Amino acid sequence: MGNATKTSTIIIGSTIALFLGVGTLWQPPQETPVACNDTTINAANNKTGNTINVPDEYKEPIKKAAQTAGLPESTVAAQIQAESQFDRMAGSPAGAQGPAQFLPSTFAKYSNGDIHNIEDSMEAYGKYMADLKKIVKPFAGDDPNKLIRLTLAAYNAGPGNVSQYKDVPPFPETKNYVEKITSGAQMKFTGGCKQVSGAKAWNGDLGKGEWTNPLPGGQFTSGFGRRNVPGLPAWAQMHAGVDLATGSGYGPQGTVIAPTDLKITGIYGKDGCVLGTMTAEPHFRMAFCHMDDYQVKAGDEIKKGTEMGRESNHAGSVGALVISHLHFEIHKPGDDYTDSNFNPYDGTAIDPEPILKEKGALGGR
């Protein structure tokens, strides 16, 4: 089970940077939206089920398995796609078989049926995932997102490894497997690209309207959470945001714009950060870092799409030469950040990736 391979979708567009002064709206080239496919968007008001892009013969078995396992249907759909591409006759060199890629010995513990039969396999899958959830629950505490991620990790790497590390094991295959499924559940199988448990950064209302990509033409290069980057100090290995980049050079590069309406609250010069707070609910605080020049200042109130500066490699805190990129953070509502109180590690940072996706500002990866 779980021979997942990391896949990436790179979003690249040509960028023409015209700096016309404070408050200028950057005019992006005409691009087809890529954050969600048309089927996903059109299914936002679908009343026939909670999943989309699922073969008809799988819809009811997935729904039942999700209920048994206590998982979102979209997560189950993404996992079965990762395991077998919805091919009931799928197999692996390790001997895994059927839609859920069970080893026959494991399948026999949960079913007397046919491992290649969709209904039998999904019924066994639901029971097995429910058992895995019980095993890993002590390590998730009261965090439902972590519980789903640990359950997926247990399916891929075994519950013993999750118990040993009390977290998603640090195996590249397992980490990629969990990421692929939680991201795929949102991007491919949920109407309107809504966040799903396991990849949900914010449980509240995200407010009205779509956002725009803060770095048009930028590609996703690094996600939120712990990482292992040679040359960075230990404290910086806990990544409090996401990174986007338009290229691989040094110095000023792409145009950084406001993803939504903002009040600029400060400039943190040491790391080239523009700090701002959403003017509308839920009043997230944001940081746009590693810029070398700024087209805005504290006190400005700017609209979505307003040019704020240029992506660069100004990163004084880490004491290392980094390739130019935009480091983007979202923090829970609170006191406005200024140059004197900004602290990425104050415990309020949340993962921007699922929020950007739901708001139509970031495609898959």
Describe what you observe in this structure.
This is Transglycosylase SLT domain-containing protein. Keywords: Membrane, Plasmid, Transmembrane, Transmembrane helix. InterPro entries: Dup_hybrid_motif (IPR011055), Lysozyme-like_dom_sf (IPR023346), M23ase_b-sheet_dom (IPR016047), Transglycosylase_SLT_dom_1 (IPR008258). This protein has 365 residues and is of the alpha+beta class. The chain has two domains: 156 residues, Lysozyme, CATH 1.10.530; 140 residues, Distorted Sandwich (Glucose Permease (Domain IIA)). Helix content is 29%, strand content 14%. Strands 1, 4, 6, 7, 8, 10, 12 and 13 form an eight-stranded antiparallel sheet that branches. It has a three-stranded antiparallel sheet with strand order 5-11-9, with no helix packed on it. Strand 6 and strand 7 form a beta hairpin. Helix 3 crosses helix 8, helix 5 crosses helix 6 and helix 6 crosses helix 7. It is elongated and about 65 Å long.
Taking all Cα atoms into account, the compactness measure Rg is 22 Å
Parts with pLDDT < 50 across at least 5 consecutive residues: 2-49, 187-193, 195-202
Overall geometric form:
elongated
Structural class: alpha+beta
How helical, in percent, are the residues? 25-40%
Please outline the major beta sheet: 8 strands, antiparallel
Helices, by number, come to 9
Task: Quote the average pLDDT.
Answer: 79
Oligomer: single chain
What's the number of structural domains? 2
Q: Strand share of the residues?
A: 5-15%
Gap from first CA to last CA = 23 Å
Number of strands: 13
Give me the CATH fold name of the largest domain: Lysozyme
CATH architecture of the largest domain: Orthogonal Bundle
The CATH C-level name of the largest domain is: Mainly Alpha
The SSE string, one letter per element, is HHHHHHHHEEEEEEEEEEEEEH
